[in-house]
Amino acid sequence: MSSELKLENFNWSNKKILIAEDEDSNFRFLEMVLMRTSVKIFWAHDGIEAIKLAKLHNPDLILMDIKMPNMDGLEATREIKKFLPDVHIIAQTAFATENDEKLSFEAGCSDYLSKPIRAKKIIEVVSKYFE
Amino acid sequence: MIKSIQKKLKVFLIISFITVISISTFAQVSEMSFKKISLKDGLSHNNVYAILQDNLGFMWFGTQDGLNRYDGYKFIIYRHDSKNKNSLSTGNFGKLYQDSNGIFWFGTYGGGLNRYDPKTNTFKHYIHKIEDPQSISSNQTLFLFRDNDNDFWIGTANGGINKFNEKDETFTRYLPDPDNPNSLSHIRAKCMCQTSDGILWIGTEDGLNRFDKKTGDFKHYKHNPQNDNSIGSNTVQYLVVDNDDIIWIATREGGLNRFDPKKEKFTRYLHNHNDQTTISDNKVETIFIDSYNQFWVGTYEGGLNLFDPQTGKFKHFMHDAKNPESISSNRIEYIYEDKSKVLWIATRGGGINKLDLKPAKFKNLVHDPDNPNSLPQSSIMAVTSDGNDNIWIGTDGGGLVKYNLKSQQFFKFKNDPKNKNTITKNRIFSIFVDKDGVIWAGTYGGGLNRIELINGEYKINRYYSDPKIKNSIPSDQINSIIEDNEGNIWLGTANGLSKIIKTENPDRYYFKNYFQQLSDTGNIVDNYLGHLFLDSKNRLWIAAYYSGLFEFDRKNEKFISYSPRKNQPKEFVTDIHALTVFEDSENKLWIGTESNGIVQFNPETNKFTPHPRNEVFQGSMIVGMLEDDMKNVWISTSRGLTKYTIWNQTINNYTFSHQLESGGFNRNSAHKGFDGTLYFGSNAALSYFNPLEVTNNPYKPKVVITDFKILNTSEWNNGPINPKMNEKNAEIVLTHNDYFITIEFAALDYTTSSENEYLYLLEGFNKEWIDATETRSATFTNLDPGVYTFKVKACNNDKIWNDEPTELKIRIVPPVWKRPWFYISEIIIFLILLWLFIRMRTKSLTRDKRILEHKVDERTKEINSQKEELAAQAESLEVINKQLEEHQDHLEELVKIRTADLEIAKDKAEEADRLKSAFLANMSHEIRTPMNAIIGFSNLLSDPEMTVDQKDEMINLIVKNSNTLLTLIDDIIDIAKIEAEQLRIIEKDCNVQYIFQNLVDYFNENKQVHLDVKFIIKDHYLINKLVIKSDPFRLHQILINLLNNAIKFTETGFIEVGYDLERRKIDNCILFYVKDSGIGIKPEQQKGIFTRFTRIEDNRKKIYRGAGLGLSITKNLIHLLGGKIWVESEIDKGSAFYFTIPYKPIDSSKDEPLIRYNTPSKHNWRDKTILVAEDEESNYKFLDMVIKKTDAEVLWAKTGLEAVQFCQQNLKINLVLMDIKMPEMDGIEAIKEIRKSRKDLAIVVQTAFSMPEDRILCIEAGADDFIAKPIGTDKLLGIINKFLSS
């Protein structure tokens, strides 16, 4: 964790984040970064679960992996936007071409993070939508 | 006659017996002004017998010679044309009639009945035929009459009456029958009418006939000299029924007769020489009741009579050669009223007379040299009225005139130099009647006169200007006189303001004079005071010619200048010459100027503004302004009279055509009478009117397109009516040759046709309406092909516009060579020509062919003989030909095969290209995914907040992801090497047993921990020794790759690895297999899976990581080793990978030392005892086999309880391998129990439970280490050694 970004400054205990990520280690990483802000985290392993959890918990923000089993992140984003049109969805994917970014925005994502992601960047982007 | 009219300028009022009085006031006929239309105007003949206005609005006149169509400007004349069957049968006209279908019926005198249909422009003639009793009875028609039952009757000069049966076009004749007293009374039937009871009345040469259609009986009414109540004469000329069902009868010699059919009583109105109010002539020709219910009676020699049935009095209008406005002839033939309430009077010899029946707007008093009871002079300079119905008129040279409205008598005051009791001068410039009834008359150059009526006589006092006498008037030119609220008389003179100081004796009145000083105006001294005006607040206003508006402050006796020059915007007032001042009902002052129109002044704010409609007054001098009781301000100007309506700012202009005698009015000669009558004096008359009666002509004129000319040639006058005139959406089609077209039109309101105005617009050509008042036509030249709409609209004499324009569509078609059909026909003609040409060629060719055939026949015979010779040669040629054909077939075959090969190659290349792209994207993803964890966690590691446990987890995750990455990189390097053919196979002794044992370790380390997948590797593969000649590193890699693949795609069930030596017998190969119960591979994918970059992607249930290189590398390696690989698979059941490598055995005894973990040199635990707690026998056997090789003693406990007992009883036991899941007592419990007695004993847990929490549970229970099943031998021995050697 870089020194200038003090996680203590963030208290998102009243916020909910849904992380859609099929790769355990990547989820753990996001979780470790975010849990210090006291934010509530929900983990969806694929797109279908992401939709289910979004419906159930009405999260404030969604970190969405694109390449996931059963239903990919783009499709899940489109579905979630139908019933939560105002929720901000941030794509985070190991695909890193311009086209992937474009597809994400077309699907309704508000932002795009390309892996590898640094902790600082996560906080930066998330705080943009929380503050 | 005329004199009598002039005597009574006030007109004779008809009080109609039907309409109410208020309407009768409209019916006032002022001095009748007949407008004449005659031969010299273009009429075909001055003997006119019939008049009709048609549905379009045209006037039709039937004359003795020709039928005339009139549009207010022009006549079009139709006569019989012997060359044209479609024309009138004669030009001599009796009567005209148009029915509701628009059909014209022309009753001619000599040509029978003519029917004319304007829609088709066709005539039909109905002529008397002696042999046909159903033809019309006579060709000389006298009347046409359609009764209420729609029966059409034709009266004739010598054939009685005819009923026309329109269906079969026959006539039913009604003739006098000497044997039938109930037949028509005379053969000459002149007129007809119908009473409301349906009875028809026929006027004949011999009495009146009553005809009942039901009975068919005629009843006769004849003159009886003994009976005054009989008809006045047997010669009946005309019949009219009035609204009360009274029949009015025009008789020859018997005067006008009134006949009441119910009482059967006739009343005669006869001429009396001594009574001017009787009918002018006993020979009555025609009667007409107009829309104001006025009775007009036309006579044979006595002109026109206006008859009042109420009083029985007649008023005469006769021809007067001296009076151009009198009727043109005294012989009246017919009277007719058009839609715009204009009366048309047909005369014999005098053409047509026109009289506007609409109420006159203005009345005029003029000078009539022949009439002493008229104005002495027509130039009016001043006018006012007193309370006694007198109008006081000042003339310019004719003196002062008093005109009594009631008596209509003029009383004249003139200067008589010998008589001092006369006015000082005959040029009267100002008149005022003060509150005592004294008349003050100011003159031009003659000072002031005071006129007072004393004992029935007028006493006149004179006041002159005398520079020597201080208290005399300042000038002999008195422009304006007023009286203020204190009774002071003020004079506006050509040189200053003057107040009359009254004394007891008017002879001694003197004057107090006021003159403007320079200080008053600050600019110019202007004592020429044109007009004085006292406003509603008793402020005295002065219009000064040079310096504009002034107020005279009577208290301080000072002039105050309000000249707009001083304090107002210059744009509308540069040099304001004020002529007159006026205050409207909203207390605004209006200043009439010489050249600035009207300037309005608000005394409250001292602001000047131009009149809101000032543009109307440009170029006019404003000389007088009066407001009527309807809040209209009437403005007299040098050009005419304008009505301005304050509330809506509308303007109406009135000039000569509105019966105003003069267009230009004079200064200070505007006056409003006590009854609201307005008076305006001009140089020609005193005009006066009741503003309420000045109404506009409400008839909106319809515009008719009267002619259409192409190149100045009339196209529309080949018949009385062009059918296009009646068409609603008339269209004219022109060619490009018609480059010069003229459209003529006329508004059919005849009140004053010359005052009608016109605007036209050609849509598609003009953008704005164009004025055509002068020309009444529009000319267009060189219009481009296209569709245009010509629109024209007009207003009547009162400028009431008909906003519904008349339209005519004009279509100009492009020239022939620009039209589509021309192109098409061109092509068709070309095709026909082409066809003809071909046909002709074919014909000639056929001919040629026939000749040739003949020649050929001859030649053939010759050739036949030669042919036989050649036949022999041909056979040998055929053989060669066959060979060639075969060769060709072969070549074709080859090409086909090559093409197919190329296509396959091409497809492959394309597929490869696609795969490469996908590989790049996928590779990026595969690298980034582990990198994400590595980089992310590496950063987090430095975070001091992280706990030790978290850090451990992170390190583990980093290691795991690093390994993934490393594998990937290895794969990439391998594939690169294979590509570069740099991968070398190093063959040496290869111990398969060892490799298999290694697979177990690998599986344990790489299995997906959360899944329940059994790893099956039969014991004998681990136990039996197998050494072959091969590359052990690559074989290991191959198996690991396949195992990895199986691990990746198997979620439940098993993975089995093994080999089969039986295959040696077939091809001297050893067969290896890796089977799983995973997702399987679709048959169509099975071929491709060994290709680079191919990955199982379609299964949506899970994303499988990997670069798609493993199987490709594997296949290549197997090839390098000299073997083959294939797959058998079923979707959702599992896959089995088989591969072979050559079986090159090595002497087993020689191989022994190579089995590293089996050598006693490595571990020698000869005196050690190891207890295996394991309920599964196979598991125990494996452990036993592995451990026994170290010479250690192995004990077997099948349950936890047994294990505890063993430990308690046998103190030699050095180490316990403890299973967790066991009957009786599980491993955890057993460890706890053992630890109670044997704290130092090494206990290693070996279990299939491999979750971290299991490990923790075991360690907490007291275990020293933990090995997860399946257990790799190397690892097992290593761990055991750790405890035994310490």
How would you characterize this protein structure?
The complex is a heterodimer of chains A (131) and B (1286). Chain A is of the alpha/beta class and 131 residues long. Chain A has one domain: Rossmann fold. Chain A has 5 helices and 5 strands, in the order E-H-E-H-E-H-E-H-E-H. Chain A has helices at residues 24-35, 47-57, 73-83, 98-107, 119-130, and strands at 16-20, 40-44, 61-65, 88-93, 111-114. In chain A, strands 2-1-3-4-5 form a 5-stranded parallel β-sheet, sandwiched between helices. The two termini of chain A are 20 Å apart. The model of chain A has no long low-confidence stretch (mean pLDDT 85). By secondary structure, chain B is α+β, with helices and mostly antiparallel strands. Among the domains of chain B are: 1-44 and 275-361, YVTN repeat-like/Quinoprotein amine dehydrogenase (Methylamine Dehydrogenase, Chain H), CATH 2.130.10.10; 380-515, Methylamine Dehydrogenase, Chain H; 536-684, YVTN repeat-like/Quinoprotein amine dehydrogenase (Methylamine Dehydrogenase, Chain H, 7 Propeller); 703-818, Immunoglobulins (Immunoglobulin-like, Sandwich), CATH 2.60.40; 984-1152, Histidine kinase-like ATPase, C-terminal domain (Heat Shock Protein 90, 2-Layer Sandwich), CATH 3.30.565.10; 1162-1285, 3-Layer(aba) Sandwich (Rossmann fold), CATH 3.40.50. Helices cover 23% and strands 33% of the residues of chain B. Chain B is built from 19 helices and 77 strands. In chain B, the strands form 19 sheets. Chain B has a 5-stranded mixed β-sheet with strand order 59-65-64-61-62, with no helix packed on it. Classes of the chains: A alpha/beta (131), B alpha+beta (1286). The A-B interface holds A 1-2, 7, 22-23, 25-26, 28-29, 32-33, 36, 67-71, 94-97, 114-119 and B 921, 924-926, 928-937, 939-940, 942-943, 945-946, 950, 953-954, 957, 960-961, 1100-1103.
